[in-house]
Design brief:
alpha/beta, Purple Acid Phosphatase, chain A, domain 2, 6-stranded mixed β-sheet, elongated, 12 helices
Length: 385
């Protein structure tokens, strides 16, 4: 059902863009069919590799197809939005001409010239935005510095530093060089602890093992902690939990660990993905279990992939939730539907006394585009309030 809906959307969007580009030029039928055929092929490129990978086929050729398909998807998406906006404003102009009378009529020849000019302009804008977004995405994450003030923070932990990565999505288009770049940036931060809040990969352990190898050196004095995101469950969660364990991560599956300094400590807990139970019933997210046995006075930091976990995490008594999942919308205009679908989109928020920070993603998913929403590695400094 998902793929039927996805294909319907892709075909409609690609077909609409092709029609809007070709309509002003009155091309011969044979040329129009040829161009529509090419556009149809591009509409299949994002979805075909996913189907093949689900059937167990992973290869460098498929990765190349994915890169082309996802990049073209970004271009067609931006074009679709721009043409829709153009049509909306056209309707406003027609309304003005007919009912308000403030717009002077334009003769047919000028109208055709304007249509062609606008189509070329939209094509150019979408192309330029796609190139810019591609460069921004492939350049890797920037460092975001964030102080968080907490009442329960012991004085011994004042200025304690936590580095967070999330949604790295090592897979068809993010490979070892990108991972090495992320590791290099974290290594220069010298955090006390590193946390990984899910969606680390998109693919099998056997295929991505070498791309993930650099992360064995992602070491911090108080450890590296990992929680599952939804994409781990699409890629063989048990095998990936074994692999993250081999990389030296501590997997927090509705559990916690105490980090000690002298006679004080703080708890770092982790819950499984918000919808994990839909694929693996034994992995149902459970913040109460994750915080079981901790005193009320203990500072509780919960790693939860999806911001939607904040409601139960707050009820369980956590002081801070660190999340990802949203990618901050990744590129406009997807910032809007992403914001509607999640309680928090990006950055730091206060949820009835429980603070939540949403990382915009250290990598990207799907189209290699970042427009107005840069990828990030977050370095938190905990401060005594």
């Amino acid at each position: 059902m998902f793929f039927i809906v996805a294909l319907t959307i892709l075909w409609s969007m690609h077909g609409y863009v092709a029609f809007k580009l070709l309509n002003p030029y009155n091309l011969p039928l044979s040329k129009s069919i040829y161009i529509y055929g090419i556009v149809f092929l591009f509409s299949m490129l994002p979805i075909l590799p996913i189907l093949l990978r689900m059937a167990g086929n992973e290869s460098k050729i498929l990765d190349k197809i994915s890169l082309i398909g996802y990049t073209s998807l970004g271009f067609f998406t931006l074009s679709f939005v721009l043409f829709m906006a153009k049509d909306f404003f056209n309707q406003l102009l027609i309304f003005s001409e007919k009912f308000i009378g403030i717009i002077h009529p334009v003769d047919d020849s000028k109208r055709e010239f304007i249509k062609k000019s606008i189509s070329i302009g939209i094509f150019s804008i979408a192309g330029s935005a796609s190139l810019y977004g591609y460069k921004q995405a492939r350049n890797g994450p920037q460092i975001i510095y964030q102080d968080i003030y907490l009442d329960k923070l012991p004085l011994q932990f004042d200025k304690y530093r936590i580095a967070q990565i999330s949604d790295l999505h090592v897979g068809p288009t993010i490979k070892r060089p990108y991972v090495e770049g992320v590791l290099d940036k974290i290594s220069h931060l010298n955090p006390d602890v590193v946390v990984v809040t899910g969606d680390l990969i998109d693919g099998s352990v056997s295929y991505l093992k070498k791309d993930m190898e650099p992360l064995v050196d992602m070491i911090a004095p108080n450890g590296t902690f990992f929680v599952t995101g939804n994409h781990e469950y699409y890629s063989g969660v048990d095998q990936w939990l074994d692999e993250t364990n081999n990389l030296g991560f501590t997997n927090l599956l509705n559990s916690h660990q105490i980090i000690k300094k002298e006679d004080s400590g703080i708890a770092i807990a982790g819950v499984t993905d918000y919808r994990a139970h839909q694929i693996k019933s034994t992995h149902k997210t459970d913040p109460n279990k994750a915080l079981l046995g901790l005193s009320e006075s203990t500072l509780k930091i919960v790693l939860a992939h999806q911001p939607a976990s904040i409601f139960k995490v707050h009820e369980a008594g956590a002081d801070l939730q660190l999340s990802g999942h949203t990618h901050g919308g990744q590129f406009w205009p997807f910032t809007y539907p992403t914001k509607w679908a999640n309680p928090y989109l990006e950055g730091l928020h206060n949820h009835h006394g429980t603070q939540i920070y949403v990382n915009r993603g250290t990598g990207y998913w799907g189209p290699p585009l970042r427009i107005g929403v840069p990828a990030e590695i977050t370095l938190f400094q905990l401060r005594k309030k």
